[in-house]
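Subject: design request, 267 residues
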């Protein structure tokens, strides 16, 4: 959080009128500088399970919030991938994202979309790309896989956003996540929409409240107390649940416990 605050200050010094004239642009510039600096470090500290999952990605993939593209190299089975659409609203990150896609050998198979994951931003762009059905609807979905790596913690209206992403997933398609979540000490498992059997940390949960009070959401841009696992599981309620759920909890003792894995949509 301290490092993020430094980049906020740096942006204010280099663009002194921006915080007043366009605060959103100021935050975007600060975040882009911060993420380009720390993205490679964060990319190294993910559970090995994520790389194993993304190595089996195939077909048409929607990559939500890839930032500067430091995780793109994990799509290692390039011959099995038809196309990846990278949804990234931070235009200041687009150059680095495209360069990392090239380094990963994806080249023309990776297309950057300048929009957010929220429906009112994403849907018009997907329509423009010709990904909707002929009648202009989502239809039965258009993506074989949707990938969210440390992004659902910050999207506006997470429930609505994930529900629409679910509709964009083809039957039999896979929804992959690597997200930090609220730290809870309950083991209630499936009742709360969680499919791992580990107990969280009360200290970690209290520290999440503490860092939130210090301004984590403002400086880092994400919510420590968001229950993303439940949001993902509940997105499939219209189909009476997912066909398969494979989620694991990592770093359950920490301020940033991560849920990693995937859910498969019913045929």
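Subject: RE: design request

Done. Sequence follows.
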């Amino acid at each position: 959080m301290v490092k993020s605050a430094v980049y906020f200050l740096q942006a204010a010094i280099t663009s002194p009128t921006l915080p007043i004239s366009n605060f959103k642009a100021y935050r975007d510039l600060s975040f882009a500088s911060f993420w380009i600096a720390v993205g490679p470090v964060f990319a190294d500290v993910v559970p090995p399970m994520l790389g194993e999952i993304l190595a089996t990605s195939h077909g048409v993939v929607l990559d939500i919030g890839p930032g500067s593209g430091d995780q793109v190299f994990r799509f290692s089975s390039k011959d099995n991938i038809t196309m990846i659409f990278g949804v990234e609203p931070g235009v200041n990150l687009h150059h680095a994202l495209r360069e990392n896609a090239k380094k990963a050998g994806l080249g023309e198979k990776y297309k950057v979309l300048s929009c957010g994951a929220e429906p009112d931003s994403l849907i018009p762009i997907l329509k423009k790309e010709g990904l909707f059905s002929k009648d202009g609807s989502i239809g039965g979905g258009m993506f074989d896989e949707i990938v969210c790596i440390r992004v659902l913690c910050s999207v506006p209206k997470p429930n609505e956003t994930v529900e629409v992403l679910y509709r964009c997933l083809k039957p039999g398609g896979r929804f992959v996540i690597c997200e930090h979540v609220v730290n809870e000490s309950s083991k209630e498992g499936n009742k709360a929409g969680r499919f791992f059997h580990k107990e969280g940390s009360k200290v970690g949960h209290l520290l999440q409240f503490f860092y939130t009070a210090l301004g984590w959401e403002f400086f880092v841009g994400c919510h420590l107390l968001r229950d993303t696992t439940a949001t993902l599981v509940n997105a499939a309620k219209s189909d009476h649940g997912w066909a398969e759920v494979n989620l694991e909890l990592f770093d359950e003792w920490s301020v940033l416990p991560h849920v990693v894995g995937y859910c498969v949509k019913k045929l």
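Strands lie at 59-64, 81-87, 110-113, 143-149, 169-180, 244-250, 258-264.
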